[in-house]
Write a structure and sequence with these properties.
121 residues, elongated, Lys-AminoMut_A, 69% helix
């Protein structure tokens, strides 16, 4: 037997006794262990330039994206993500994301936006 086969057989021994459901649960535990640090980085390490880039990919021009991100930053919600803010505003007002962005640019009340997130700042 080659080294890879021997290694595999040894490394899977602790999995042999598990049912399919237990294996599935173990898989998702391990997957979450891998993904959670990446998601946390995304939550804690955003910047206005990253958020402008995201908003531009949602169909806004560079000046529009800058205005939206500036308003989001003024609301203290940059960590929530400008795209997420646009989504929440569009859902709350029954608008598409373009109209939601335009309402933010036009001066939508920042406290109202914060309230969409439970008043979090």
């Amino acid at each position: 037997m080659d080294t890879i086969t021997v290694d595999f057989k040894g490394r899977r021994d602790h999995l042999r006794a598990m049912s399919d459901e237990e294996l599935k649960t173990r898989f998702w535990e391990l997957a979450n262990n891998l993904v959670e640090p990446l998601a946390e980085l995304g939550r804690t390490h955003t910047s206005p330039s990253i958020e402008r880039s995201i908003v531009m990919r949602m169909g806004f021009t560079s000046p529009e994206a800058k205005a939206i991100v500036t308003k989001v930053e003024e609301a203290g919600l940059l960590g929530k993500g400008a795209g997420h803010i646009l989504l929440k505003v569009s859902q709350a007002d029954g608008l598409n994301t373009r109209k939601a962005g335009e309402s933010i640019i036009a001066g939508r009340d920042l406290a109202d936006i914060r309230n969409l997130f439970g008043g979090a700042r």
